[in-house]
Amino acid sequence: MKTSFYQFTLPMLQEIFLANDLPATGPAKLYNWHYKKRRTEKCEKDFAKVSQDFVAENFSFELPEIDSLQKSTDRTVKFLLKLSDGKKVETVLIPSNKRYGICLSSQVGCAMKCSFCHTGLQGLERHLETHEIVGQLLAVQRWLNAERPDDNDIATIVFMGQGEPLHNFDSVKNACEIFLSQNGLSLAADKITISTAGYLPGLKRWKAEMPDVNIALSLHAIDKLKRDKLIPINQKFPVEEVLEIVNSIPKQKKRFVVYEYLLARGFNDSKEDAEKLGKALQGKRAFVNIIPFNPFPGAEYERPSKEEIDAFKEQLDQSGVTSLVRFTKGDDILAACGQLNSRS
Ligand code: SF4
Question: Which of 72, 146, 176, 260 gives the lowest tally of CB atoms within 10 Å of its CB?
Answer without folding.
Answer: 146
